[in-house]
């Protein structure tokens, strides 16, 4: 079985949009690129399967990003605040900061997207 291919569309403002595709990238690489800030203003992430089907996994990737940030315990970087809140729930970026301060218990396993 072939691993899925991940495609990320980033918005570069006046410079336009660019889709990033690298057959070597794993789901983990995609999450790491977003967390590190290497990919900014990600509009969507899609997963292309070996059978030619694809899925929009943007919200799933956002949950993985949230979980990684929660695990790191460093709060939410400014460049990700709006993205986290838009992809998941308004206020989730703040939850990461509250977690950092020790105000919120670790509930990364309980995090769920609000219905849209």
Average residue-wise pLDDT: 82
Please give the share of residues in helix. 25-40%
Taking the alpha carbons of the first and last residues, their distance comes to 33 Å
Alpha-beta classification? alpha+beta
Order of helices and strands: EEHEEHHH
Please give the domain count. 1
What composes the largest sheet? Answer: 4 strands, antiparallel
**What is the beta-strand fraction?**
15-25%
Low-confidence stretches: 103-112
Backbone shape: globular
Strand order of the largest sheet: 2-1-3-4
Count of separate DSSP helical elements: 4
Q: Would you count the extended β strands for me?
A: 4
Radius of gyration: 15 Å
Break the fold down into its secondary structure elements and pairings.
Layout: E1 5-11, E2 17-21, H1 27-36, E3 42-48, E4 54-56, H2 58-72, H3 81-87, H4 92-100
Antiparallel strand pairs: 1-2, 1-3, 3-4
Helix pairs in contact: 1-2
A few lines on this structure:
This protein has 116 residues and is α+β, with helices and mostly antiparallel strands. It has helices spanning 27-36, 58-72, 81-87, 92-100, and strands at residues 5-11, 17-21, 42-48, 54-56.
Describe the 3D structure.
By secondary structure, the protein is of the alpha+beta class. It has one domain (5-104). Helices cover 35% and strands 19% of the residues. It is built from four helices and four strands; from the N terminus they run E-E-H-E-E-H-H-H. The protein has helices at 27-36, 58-72, 81-87, 92-100; strands at residues 5-11, 17-21, 42-48, 54-56. Strands 2-1-3-4 form a four-stranded antiparallel β-sheet. A hairpin with a 5-residue loop joins strand 1 and strand 2. The chain is globular and about 40 Å long. The N and C termini lie far apart (33 Å).
């Amino acid at each position: 079985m072939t691993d899925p291919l991940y495609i990320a569309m980033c918005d570069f403002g006046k410079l336009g949009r660019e889709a990033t595709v690298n057959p070597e990238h794993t789901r983990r690489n995609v999450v790491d690129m977003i967390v590190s800030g290497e990919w900014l203003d990600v509009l969507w992430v899609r997963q292309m399967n070996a059978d030619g089907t694809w899925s929009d996994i943007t919200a799933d990737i956002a949950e993985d990003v949230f979980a990684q940030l929660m695990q790191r315990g460093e709060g939410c970087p400014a460049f990700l605040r709006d993205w986290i809140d838009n992809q998941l729930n308004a206020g989730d970026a703040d939850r990461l900061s509250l977690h950092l301060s020790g105000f919120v218990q670790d509930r990364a396993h309980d995090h769920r997207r609000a219905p849209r």
